[in-house]
Amino acid sequence: MFSQSRAFIGRVHSKKGVFVNDAQLVEACLEGDHRAYAILVDRYRYPVFGLCLSYVKDFDAAEDAAQEALIAAYLRLESLPEPQKFGPWLRAIAANQCRMWLRRQRRQVAFDEEKAVVDPAPSPAEQVLAREHRQRVLAAVARLSQPQQQAVVLFYLEGLSLKRIAAFLDVAVPTVEQRLYRARLNLKEEMATMVEENLQEHRLPEDFTQEVVQEALARGQDLLQERQWPEARKAFNRIVAAVPDHLEAHRGLALAFDGETREALRQEAHFSDGRLLDNTFAALHKVCELGADDPEIARALSRLYSHYGRHEEGGQCLERAADRLDDWRRSVPLYKMAISVYYHAHYTGRGNHMEACVRCHRRARQLVPADWPPRRRFALWQPSGMSMAYAHLGLSQEVFDELGALKAQSEDEWSVEEYFQYYGIYSNQYREMGRWDEVEKHSRAYVDWAKALPADDPRLQIRPLALTEEGDENAGAHNGNDFRWWTVCYALADRILRARYETGRATADILAELDWALNQHQSAGSYSIAGQSTCETGHYSEALRYLRKEEELGGRLANRGDIYLAAALVALGQVEEGKERLRNIYGRLVANGQCRSWFGKLDVFDAVRGDADMVELVDEWERAERVGAPTAQGG
User: Fold this and answer.
1) Is the pTM of this model over 0.70?
2) Which end of the chain has fewer CB atoms < 10 Å from its terminal CB, N or C?
3) Residue 460: which residues within 8 A CB-CB, separation 6 or more?
4) By the 8 A CB rule, do 49 and 63 touch?
5) Structure letter (DSSP) for residue 556
6) What residues contact 585, with CB distance under 8 A and at least 6 apart?
7) Is 17 helix (H, G, I), strand (E, B) or coil?
8) In 10 A of CB 76, how many CB atoms?
């Protein structure tokens, strides 16, 4: 429950001692101290309710207005100029809420006997009498002046002390005494007793504070949808301050931090806000600690770890979340993501996690139903890099056995992408073994098959399957003639050209075939893979040409394109332009260490690696990496 017991009020401690006034509670709430705002809600719910009742003359409407006022104050607490004047500030907000409510009614509500709404259904006699009694009381109160109404309602509704009423109304205690005295004179003695009894009967529901917090939670969710990250963060943070273990509020807070951080990472050339990053890590971890089986949080945490090259931790987040889920449809996509993250650590030289890759993949294969159709089961092996860890551990035969069976059972249903993935898996197994002749053999088989397909071949229009979190057969976007030529370019550049390079054989015919394939469709993606592969195999003139074309078609270079273009420029003697390219690389490639890693491993940079400006640039990259390094807060 969100409401606090009355015995608890006033017993919350800070480092400075016991909270004895509103200012301390407000300051504590702004600092994130637990339960502070819940205490303020409990302290002021009846004063606000009473004030609203004096305006709207309707118990239900007054309760709604009181909730709106407390929520509005909650969301605008940082705008309070003087924390010691929280009560009067809240009173002004409540009065404004009531005025808006009255405007929505399109009339000033002055309660009288004619306002009663008669229920069309027959009511017991005692209910009719009770309603009439309540209407007489409110009508009597409505005939008092506004100041007298407020004093009477606040005094009788919960028996507030004159001092508290005076503080809330921002008047002197004698003024309150005078208003009460005049109100009693204006009310007959019998009616005064009826007012006291009737108001005391209409206490707020036990879950009033809970409803206030739930509504604030909904407002926070709206702010998340609107991508107003700082405002959403403040809203959820105040709920967390009131209810420390509120899982949904912690989740909203974590997503707000994550959204703010991702936006900053995209927009800032050199992100350096370590505090924001630490808070984001801490907020995401808190949701996990509270036991949330939440794929979205796991993905956000893994994405942030991976951004800073901490792939092992990123993979572990995904794997733990997948292990905890009891629905294979939600677990399997997380296992596949974990494999990609673990393998990327190996690919970027940040650790060997091949056993973790195979463990996750086997777990995913075990979880899917035994009667799953072969074509859907084949989706577990996509993309083709999913299988590379098996080769590292000497388990390629396990891959070959299952893929052979799946192909025999479902080949007639395959799309072009599935053929491409099938041959790619075989090529990648042999690539990891260093058997480049087999890499070229299987890649050539695919290239020749794909090139021979007629433009109207139905397999070009079959949409491939992709496993969603719901386990549905979701149609992917990889189909059609353009995709056919992209796969041909990929197989030629990344597999066959590389196989020729590794074995020292001639490459001129492959480069000519690659040019022919690139001309079949003008795609930035195809030129991207061609540029990267030719750079890695020492064909710098071709790499420069392909990467320039990619930039022309796509407006920018993808992945490590700027690093490769810089390498090609340096190799071809255009050193200053190459250096300028390196200086203009920002974001993930710098933060996760790829820039520094590739600058160190590509031999072509030997010519400039010792230059003073390049040494300074590498130092700058290292500082950017350290922003996301582990901290005492667990980031």
Assistant:
1) no
2) N
3) 416, 453, 479, 480, 481, 483, 484
4) yes
5) S
6) 562, 563, 595
7) strand
8) 12
Under 8 Å between Cβ of 238 and 29: yes
Q: Distance between CA 75 and CA 263 in Å, rounded?
A: 23
Q: What is the pLDDT of residues 472-517, one digit of tens each?
A: 444 455 568 888 999 999 999 999 999 999 999 999 999 999 999 9
Alpha-helix residue ranges (DSSP H) falling in 411-467: 416-433, 436-451
CB under 8 Å to 114, separation ≥6 — which residues? Answer: none
CATH topology assigned to domain 6-116+123-210: Rna Polymerase Sigma Factor; Chain: A (1.10.1740)
Q: How far apart are CA 162 and CA 151, in angstroms?
A: 9
Both tokens of residue 40?
Answer: 């303020």
Collapsing DSSP to helix, strand or coil, 70 comes out as helix
C-alpha span between 573 and 571 (Å, rounded): 6
Question: How many Cβ atoms sit within 10 Å of the Cβ of residue 341?
Answer: 26
Instruction: Give the burial class of 300: count Cβ atoms within 10 A of its Cβ; 0-12 exposed, 13-18 middle, 19 or more buried.
Output: buried
Whose tokens are 């491993």? That residue is 601
Q: Which amino acid is at 600?
A: G
Question: How far apart are alpha carbons 319 and 338 in whole angstroms?
Answer: 6
What is the distance, to the nearest Å, from the Cα of residue 268 to the centroid of all Cα atoms in its chain?
Answer: 19
Residue-level pLDDT at 241: 61
Dihedral of alpha carbons 494, 496, 497, 498, sign:
positive
What tokens does 359 get? 């463990």
Looking at residue 77, what DSSP letter applies?
A: G
Distance CA 272, CA 180 (A): 60
Nearest-CA neighbor of 27 among 40, 44, 46? 40
Look-up of token digits 């006699």 = 125
For the chain, the first-to-last Cα distance in angstroms comes to 31
Tokens of 82: 């003087």
Which H helix or E strand runs over 570?
Answer: helix 561-571
Both tokens assigned to 56? 């709207």
**Listed residue (274, 276, 270) closest to 229, CA to CA:** 276
Average pLDDT of every residue of the chain = 81
Which of 42, 60, 56 is CA-nearest to residue 96? Answer: 56
Question: Is 221 in contact with 229 (CB distance < 8 Å)?
Answer: no
Q: What gap in Å lies between CA 136 and CA 123, rounded to an integer?
A: 19
- The one-letter amino acid code at 153 reads V
SS3 percent helix, strand, coil of the chain, rounded to 5, is 70, 0, 25
Q: Which residue type does 602 have?
A: L
